[in-house]
Amino acid sequence: MPQEIQLQVLPEIAATNHLLVDYVAKLTHTPSNEIQHVTILKRSIDARQKQVKINLKVQVFFQGEDVQHRSVSFPDYKNVKDAPVAIVVGAGPAGYFAALQLIELGVKPIVVERGKDVRGRRRDLKAINVDHIVNPDSNYCFGEGGAGTYSDGKLYTRSKKRGDVNRILELLVAFGASQDILVEAHPHIGTNKLPKIMEDMRHKITEFGGEVLFDKRVVDFDVKSNEIKGAVLHTGETIAANQVILATGHSARDIFELLDRKNIFIEAKPFALGVRAEHPQSLIDSIQYSCDFRGDFLPPAPYSIVKQVNGRGMYSFCMCPGGVIAPCATDVEEVVTNGWSPSKRDQITANSGIVVELKLEDFKPYEKHGALAGMYFQKEIENTAWKVAGKTQEVPAQRMVDFSNKKVSESLPKTSYVPGVVSSELGDVFPKFLTGIMRQGFQEFGKSMKGYFTNDAILHAPESRTSSPVRIPRSDDTLEHLQIKGLYPCGEGAGYAGGIISAAIDGEKCAIKCAEQIFGYRN
Hints:
Residues 87-255 form the FAD/NAD(P)-binding domain. With 523 residues, this protein is of the alpha+beta class.
């Protein structure tokens, strides 16, 4: 019978099959030739000691035993061409996984996406990077796959209670992701791999009778007697449906404004905001792995750090080993940064959002905007940064030590941020209380990670789209909006997710509740 074993081994052993077999043989007191196969079930890095080790959970198959390889397959999708309809607003992870779940349950999804498909998006991304032109409907946040497609592809979530993480991972593998995501403690697909996966999801949706409409922006909802009746597009056409899953993402400000204007209840939500810090990857490797060179068997090192500064949490967010910083504005007269890594994480720089938690009281100067106060706080910082850097897609930047010392950097090295950087005093971008926390916080970070606090690190401002600035309230039972029957607030934009996995899970949950309403059953 196959045997499961927990191991802690050197990186070279974990990465080399015959060495791993020999190690397992010695551990189990078995000749190597009697071990037929060793399958790695789980893998994580332990860098707490000077000698970095790899934690493995393996399954050992001995001679004569049937080797069982983990297989994945698609669910039993139904042809829904003539089935009851539900509208899904947004083609990000929440929207696409909702659409696939609807098909599985016998409902026809019509996915409405304001942006372009993944191929069309590339031209608009180039326009931002090279020509500093922002298309408000097609950019790093809007378009097929949503913000996740071109924002790294991290698949780690701490929220195991949200739902079946493995189901989402296995579906991603079925759509073409590496099986490594089923093994790694912090799985990652890579921005270069995600577009094809999202494209294949769309093909699966349309293959079974669903529809995906691009370049279609929702500008209104048809609501009668507090019940949803359909969605109105910018073209003037209305798509009729009694169920709408609203999965627009954290940057769909026009949707938040629409709901507020129609007196459909939303509420301000705290989020976090700060800068994106870039270090040489070799420096992060030396800090995390306690070595001058990480060698051939360790991946580029990530880091995670959190400190309490003046009663506020300041922490790393969306850390990208071997990655780059991207321009993520969704409108003119603003600049926004985010980060991503390719699948091999082979760039020479590492970057991370370093953000400070905000409180509702911070939005008091914007209270005239009601539930949109946090959004206007966010918008003003993005607009100020745009002005400080010269009103293009260049961003204000400063060396880390210089920032803490309130000194404009005399020079800046070339960073991975393609549109360019302008040496600035970042204190001119942020409110005074936020700047003070960050100046002190970076020094505190340096005490925990020796070498982190350095002028070799460049801060780019702002990192402002960490999560939605609003929450769209819904019933815990039906997941419908508390006021509007048939409207399902979903994913990051509604305040119920924080990444690809949690958004996908929430999309599936909303789809299940939607199907229950259509067919009159409880799952």
